[in-house]
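FORM 12-B: Structure-to-Sequence Request
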């Protein structure tokens, strides 16, 4: 059995795509998963299952959400080892920064530097980004809401590529919630 985090993109923000967390927990339980928990209201769920295909699990949950709530939702599913590696490989001094200054965008597939070659990083300093394994780390000293770099990074969605961002507190909490139980 493996514990996974499901990251649902764009739910419960801006008045649209409402998915009550109790309903999301019930939905995941109904799909046969155990140990189902949610974190915050912004689209994180943790569950345990013997099925090990992250893409299949994400597609299954996406279909179930659309059937239950009537709208499509992009979903990424990641296991503890991946989430822990993302946190451990942060290229910024995470322990020295406020959580609102550091964000991770998770991608459904690897992204290459050429995808961001059009961005003049020097023009956005002190904001910075670095690529990781199917993720992008963003340092935004004034927070995401004021970040001009975040705005530019999110402009060019690639067809079929799912991207969803989380602040550093959530990144760490998902590592904790998916950790193997002793």
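FORM 12-B RESPONSE
SEQUENCE OUT:
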């Amino acid at each position: 059995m493996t514990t996974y985090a499901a990251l649902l993109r764009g739910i419960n923000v801006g008045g649209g795509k409402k998915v009550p967390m109790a309903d999301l927990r019930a939905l995941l339980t109904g799909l046969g998963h155990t140990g189902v928990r949610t974190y915050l209201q912004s689209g994180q769920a943790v569950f345990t299952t013997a099925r090990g295909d992250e893409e299949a699990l994400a597609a299954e949950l996406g279909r179930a959400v659309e059937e239950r709530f009537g709208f499509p939702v992009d979903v990424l599913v990641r296991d503890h080892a991946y989430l822990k590696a993302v946190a451990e490989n942060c290229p910024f001094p995470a322990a020295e920064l406020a959580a609102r200054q550091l964000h991770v965008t998770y991608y459904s597939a690897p992204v290459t530097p050429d995808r961001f070659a059009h961005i003049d990083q020097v023009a956005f300093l002190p904001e910075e980004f670095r690529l990781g394994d199917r993720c992008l780390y963003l340092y935004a000293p004034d927070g995401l809401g004021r970040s001009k770099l975040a705005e530019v990074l999110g402009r060019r969605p690639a067809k079929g590529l799912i991207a969803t961002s989380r602040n550093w507190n959530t990144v760490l909490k998902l590592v904790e919630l998916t950790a193997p139980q002793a």
